[in-house]
Amino acid sequence: MSITINRLAAVTLGAGLAFALPSQSAKAEDALGTPVGHLTLSAQSADVGVGFSWGEGTLTYGHHKYRFKVSGADIAAVGYSKISAHATVYNLKNLHDFDGTYGALNGEATLDRGLGGALLSNSNGVKLKLDSVTRGARLAAGAQGLTFTLEK
Protein backbone atom coordinates (compact mmCIF):
# COMPACT_ATOMS: atom_id res chain seq x y z
CA MET A 1 0.00 0.00 0.00
CA SER A 2 2.75 2.49 0.92
CA ILE A 3 4.59 1.67 -2.34
CA THR A 4 1.44 2.54 -4.33
CA ILE A 5 1.00 5.81 -2.42
CA ASN A 6 4.67 6.71 -2.94
CA ARG A 7 4.40 6.02 -6.69
CA LEU A 8 1.19 8.04 -6.91
CA ALA A 9 2.87 10.92 -5.08
CA ALA A 10 5.86 10.75 -7.44
CA VAL A 11 3.61 10.76 -10.53
CA THR A 12 1.53 13.63 -9.14
CA LEU A 13 4.68 15.63 -8.32
CA GLY A 14 6.11 14.93 -11.77
CA ALA A 15 2.90 16.02 -13.48
CA GLY A 16 2.78 19.15 -11.35
CA LEU A 17 6.34 20.06 -12.32
CA ALA A 18 5.62 19.39 -15.98
CA PHE A 19 2.81 21.94 -15.91
CA ALA A 20 4.57 24.43 -13.60
CA LEU A 21 7.90 24.69 -15.44
CA PRO A 22 6.55 25.87 -18.82
CA SER A 23 4.56 28.62 -17.12
CA GLN A 24 7.70 29.85 -15.33
CA SER A 25 9.59 29.82 -18.63
CA ALA A 26 6.72 31.65 -20.31
CA LYS A 27 6.83 34.34 -17.60
CA ALA A 28 10.57 34.84 -18.18
CA GLU A 29 9.99 35.11 -21.95
CA ASP A 30 7.15 37.61 -21.35
CA ALA A 31 9.58 39.83 -19.44
CA LEU A 32 11.91 39.91 -22.47
CA GLY A 33 9.13 40.22 -25.03
CA THR A 34 8.49 38.04 -28.05
CA PRO A 35 11.46 36.26 -29.64
CA VAL A 36 12.16 37.73 -33.11
CA GLY A 37 15.21 35.72 -34.15
CA HIS A 38 18.00 33.35 -33.23
CA LEU A 39 21.77 33.28 -33.58
CA THR A 40 24.63 30.84 -33.34
CA LEU A 41 28.25 31.80 -32.80
CA SER A 42 31.71 30.33 -32.36
CA ALA A 43 34.39 32.37 -30.61
CA GLN A 44 37.83 32.07 -29.04
CA SER A 45 39.47 33.95 -26.17
CA ALA A 46 43.18 34.37 -25.52
CA ASP A 47 44.27 36.17 -22.38
CA VAL A 48 47.45 37.26 -20.61
CA GLY A 49 46.49 40.12 -18.28
CA VAL A 50 44.13 41.83 -20.71
CA GLY A 51 42.20 39.38 -22.85
CA PHE A 52 40.61 39.47 -26.28
CA SER A 53 37.78 37.44 -27.81
CA TRP A 54 36.94 37.03 -31.49
CA GLY A 55 34.57 34.94 -33.54
CA GLU A 56 31.76 34.77 -36.06
CA GLY A 57 28.21 33.60 -36.32
CA THR A 58 24.89 33.62 -38.09
CA LEU A 59 21.79 35.64 -37.19
CA THR A 60 18.42 34.28 -38.36
CA TYR A 61 15.94 37.17 -38.57
CA GLY A 62 12.86 37.66 -40.76
CA HIS A 63 13.34 34.30 -42.56
CA HIS A 64 16.84 35.37 -43.67
CA LYS A 65 20.33 34.48 -42.45
CA TYR A 66 22.99 37.14 -41.86
CA ARG A 67 26.68 36.54 -41.09
CA PHE A 68 28.34 38.61 -38.35
CA LYS A 69 31.67 39.05 -36.57
CA VAL A 70 32.05 39.34 -32.81
CA SER A 71 34.95 40.75 -30.76
CA GLY A 72 35.50 41.90 -27.20
CA ALA A 73 37.89 42.47 -24.32
CA ASP A 74 38.25 41.29 -20.72
CA ILE A 75 40.23 42.73 -17.84
CA ALA A 76 42.40 40.67 -15.49
CA ALA A 77 42.13 37.49 -17.57
CA VAL A 78 44.45 34.51 -18.06
CA GLY A 79 43.97 31.47 -20.32
CA TYR A 80 42.49 30.29 -23.60
CA SER A 81 39.03 29.00 -24.43
CA LYS A 82 36.69 28.18 -27.30
CA ILE A 83 33.02 29.08 -27.02
CA SER A 84 29.99 27.78 -28.91
CA ALA A 85 26.72 29.59 -28.26
CA HIS A 86 23.09 29.81 -29.27
CA ALA A 87 20.91 32.81 -28.45
CA THR A 88 17.33 33.91 -28.74
CA VAL A 89 17.00 37.49 -30.01
CA TYR A 90 14.46 39.95 -28.57
CA ASN A 91 13.44 43.54 -29.38
CA LEU A 92 15.21 43.67 -32.77
CA LYS A 93 12.93 45.95 -34.80
CA ASN A 94 15.35 46.83 -37.62
CA LEU A 95 18.32 44.79 -38.84
CA HIS A 96 20.71 47.75 -38.42
CA ASP A 97 19.90 47.80 -34.67
CA PHE A 98 21.74 44.46 -34.28
CA ASP A 99 25.21 46.02 -34.66
CA GLY A 100 26.75 47.36 -31.47
CA THR A 101 28.44 46.54 -28.20
CA TYR A 102 26.48 44.26 -25.90
CA GLY A 103 26.94 44.24 -22.14
CA ALA A 104 25.57 41.86 -19.52
CA LEU A 105 22.19 42.85 -18.07
CA ASN A 106 22.36 40.47 -15.12
CA GLY A 107 25.87 39.03 -15.05
CA GLU A 108 26.80 35.54 -16.15
CA ALA A 109 25.62 32.30 -14.61
CA THR A 110 27.99 29.36 -14.94
CA LEU A 111 25.96 26.18 -14.69
CA ASP A 112 28.35 23.21 -14.82
CA ARG A 113 31.03 21.60 -16.97
CA GLY A 114 31.58 24.67 -19.13
CA LEU A 115 27.88 25.41 -19.63
CA GLY A 116 26.80 28.99 -19.09
CA GLY A 117 24.25 31.62 -19.86
CA ALA A 118 23.95 35.38 -20.01
CA LEU A 119 21.45 38.05 -20.88
CA LEU A 120 23.07 40.72 -23.08
CA SER A 121 21.74 44.06 -24.36
CA ASN A 122 23.02 46.78 -26.69
CA SER A 123 22.29 50.53 -26.78
CA ASN A 124 19.48 49.97 -29.32
CA GLY A 125 17.59 47.82 -26.80
CA VAL A 126 18.25 44.52 -28.60
CA LYS A 127 18.49 41.66 -26.09
CA LEU A 128 20.24 38.30 -26.48
CA LYS A 129 19.43 35.37 -24.18
CA LEU A 130 22.65 33.39 -24.61
CA ASP A 131 23.36 29.73 -23.80
CA SER A 132 27.00 28.71 -24.24
CA VAL A 133 29.45 25.82 -23.99
CA THR A 134 33.08 26.67 -23.19
CA ARG A 135 36.13 24.44 -23.62
CA GLY A 136 39.59 25.30 -22.29
CA ALA A 137 41.06 26.83 -19.15
CA ARG A 138 40.40 30.49 -18.49
CA LEU A 139 39.96 32.89 -15.57
CA ALA A 140 38.57 36.41 -16.10
CA ALA A 141 37.61 39.11 -13.60
CA GLY A 142 35.25 41.15 -15.77
CA ALA A 143 33.97 41.66 -19.29
CA GLN A 144 34.07 45.00 -21.08
CA GLY A 145 31.48 43.93 -23.65
CA LEU A 146 31.10 42.08 -26.94
CA THR A 147 30.83 43.99 -30.22
CA PHE A 148 28.65 42.40 -32.93
CA THR A 149 29.03 43.63 -36.53
CA LEU A 150 26.98 42.35 -39.48
CA GLU A 151 29.05 41.49 -42.54
CA LYS A 152 28.23 43.64 -45.56
TrEMBL record:
Keywords: Signal. Residues 1-28 form the signal peptide. This is DUF1134 domain-containing protein. It comes from Brytella acorum. The lineage of its organism: Bacteria, Pseudomonadati, Pseudomonadota, Alphaproteobacteria, Acetobacterales.
